[in-house]
């Protein structure tokens, strides 16, 4: 037992590896909206077609999560993370070379998004939950989640500066190379779910765990709420630069608004990670979705100045991905850590189905109406619905393991 403990990496090193990986993969993906207009100008494909590629990216990022989680639960997180990081780098690097909708879907929607899904929160949070003491898992998931926000905060201004300095093509390729910095994390976070099974018990099989989850009403309600989160997050990440443009503001406000979302999401994520150990997680989730609905309604009625845009981005940042720690916490509470990568990956898949619709419909609605207003109205309705459907969730643990 003593040897086992000594062989485990230090807590700060685990958090640095997981949060750093999420920072680079998420930061790269969340700044792609800055390149939407240059890609459109270069290819002439139209906003709707390019938004489809971004939407497939949202969808494929989610579709890879449960499969990547299942593989990580069985053969180890390290190999999955290694493959994921390499795919993100490759997809980002070749994106400027794609001149068709199919090519953009392949680079952005399959390679980059699929790789980011493999090196995404399902695998990263399951790895940290397995490697850290249970009492610290809530705050740890908040810190890992904040890593993604920090990546957005840092990468958005870097991407904007690179676009001005070397052009959008070289900027994307440089960002693809930067992602490779997180390769060493694959070694630190290696290991599989067998290490998470309590003494004298074995982990429930993947098929049995999924079957149990799909028969659990609280799990299904949680997934439905996360669908709404994906719709909201993907719409903002993809189309906030377009929203800034329709408000008549200079382009630099788009980069700073995305950076503001990332900065305040760090606060929201860490704060939520601290809060999940003190209040009911379902109540925290209801509060987040209700806050989003109110914030969007106020933004629609407010004058569209630079200050208003930054304040709106700050509020959205506080709620942007602060849903992740309580959602991951509820999955772990329901079913334990052994199959968490798989089951949290399934919930993330519903998140990205919502993300597909948010990214794609944003472009289609704007093409049809010349405005994003109808997407904002839909976002308010969905946020209110998400706030309500979390209330019936029961936080009691479900079946976790079977006797060996």
Helix content: over 70%
Biggest sheet: strand arrangement: 1-2
Structural classification: mainly alpha
Q: What is the CATH architecture descriptor?
A: Up-down Bundle
Query: Can you summarize the main beta sheet?
Result: 2 strands, antiparallel
Q: So what's the overall shape?
A: globular
Q: Which spans have pLDDT < 50 for at least 5 consecutive residues? A: 1-6, 400-404
- Compute the number of structural domains: 1
CATH fold node name: Growth Hormone, Chain: A
Order of helices and strands: HHHHHHHHHHEHHHHHHHHE
The level-1 CATH class: Mainly Alpha
The number of helical elements comes to 18
Distance between the termini: 20 Å
Report Rg. 20 Å
CATH superfamily: MFS general substrate transporter like domains
């Amino acid at each position: 037992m003593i040897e086992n403990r000594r062989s485990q990496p230090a807590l700060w090193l685990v958090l640095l590896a997981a949060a750093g990986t999420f920072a680079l993969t998420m930061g790269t993906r969340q700044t792609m909206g800055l390149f939407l207009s240059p890609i459109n100008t270069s290819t002439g494909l139209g906003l709707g077609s390019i938004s489809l590629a971004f939407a497939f990216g949202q969808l494929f990022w989610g579709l890879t999560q449960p499969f990547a989680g299942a593989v990580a639960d069985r053969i180890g997180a390290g190999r999955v993370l290694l493959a994921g990081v390499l795919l993100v780098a490759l997809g980002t690097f070749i994106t400027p070379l794609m001149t068709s909708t199919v090519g953009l879907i392949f680079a952005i929607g399959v390679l980059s998004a699929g790789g980011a899904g493999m090196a995404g929160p399902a695998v990263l949070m399951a790895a940290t939950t397995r490697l850290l003491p249970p009492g610290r898992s809530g705050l740890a998931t908040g810190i890992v989640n904040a890593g993604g926000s920090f990546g957005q905060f840092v990468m958005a201004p870097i991407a904007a500066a690179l676009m001005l300095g070397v052009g959008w093509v070289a900027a994307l390729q440089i960002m693809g190379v930067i992602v490779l910095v997180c390769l060493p994390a694959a070694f630190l976070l290696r290991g599989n779910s067998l290490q998470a099974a309590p003494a004298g018990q074995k982990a429930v099989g993947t098929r049995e765990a999924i079957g149990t989850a799909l028969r659990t009403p609280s799990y299904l309600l949680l997934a439905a709420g996360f669908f709404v989160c994906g719709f909201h997050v993907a719409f903002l990440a993809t189309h906030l630069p377009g929203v800034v443009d329709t408000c008549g503001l200079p382009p630099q406000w788009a980069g700073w608004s995305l950076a503001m979302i990332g900065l305040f999401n760090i606060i929201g994520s860490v704060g939520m990670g601290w809060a999940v150990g003190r209040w009911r997680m379902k109540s925290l989730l209801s509060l987040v979705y209700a806050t989003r609905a109110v914030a969007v309604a106020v933004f629609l009625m407010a004058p569209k100045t630079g200050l208003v845009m930054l304040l709106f981005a700050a509020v959205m940042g506080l709620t942007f991905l602060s849903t992740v720690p309580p959602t991951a916490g509820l999955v772990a509470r329901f079913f334990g850590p052994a199959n968490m990568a798989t089951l949290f990956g399934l919930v993330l898949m519903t998140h990205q189905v919502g993300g597909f619709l948010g990214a794609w419909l944003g472009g289609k609605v704007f093409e049809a109406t010349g405005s994003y207003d109808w997407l904002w109205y839909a976002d308010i309705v969905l946020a209110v619905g998400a706030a309500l459907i979390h209330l019936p969730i029961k936080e009691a643990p479900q079946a976790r393991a079977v006797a060996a």
